[in-house]
């Protein structure tokens, strides 16, 4: 998952376009994870880059296909940093 930061290439610039990527295994003692065991945060410069990643990026789409049958539950949240 984190390798996508370097393997996802923007179709116009031909450069990696994911601004940052981080993630890890849950270690919260609160017990409110609802079955989610790992979390990942990808940061994009703009919504258009995020949309390309979701809908069209060949590296991302190939990665998603490798997860078929491996993931029991997934949850995606998109947010704008510091906008509440």
TrEMBL record:
The domain of life is: Eukaryota
Task: List the Pfam families hit by this protein, alphabetically.
Answer: Dabb
**SMART domains from the entry?**
Dabb
Q: What segment(s) does the record annotate as region Disordered?
A: 1-30
Q: Which InterPro entries match?
A: Dabb (IPR013097), Dimeric_a/b-barrel (IPR011008)
Domain (Stress-response A/B barrel): residue spans on this chain: 1-79
Name of the protein this chain belongs to = Stress-response A/B barrel domain-containing protein
State the organism of origin.
Penicillium egyptiacum
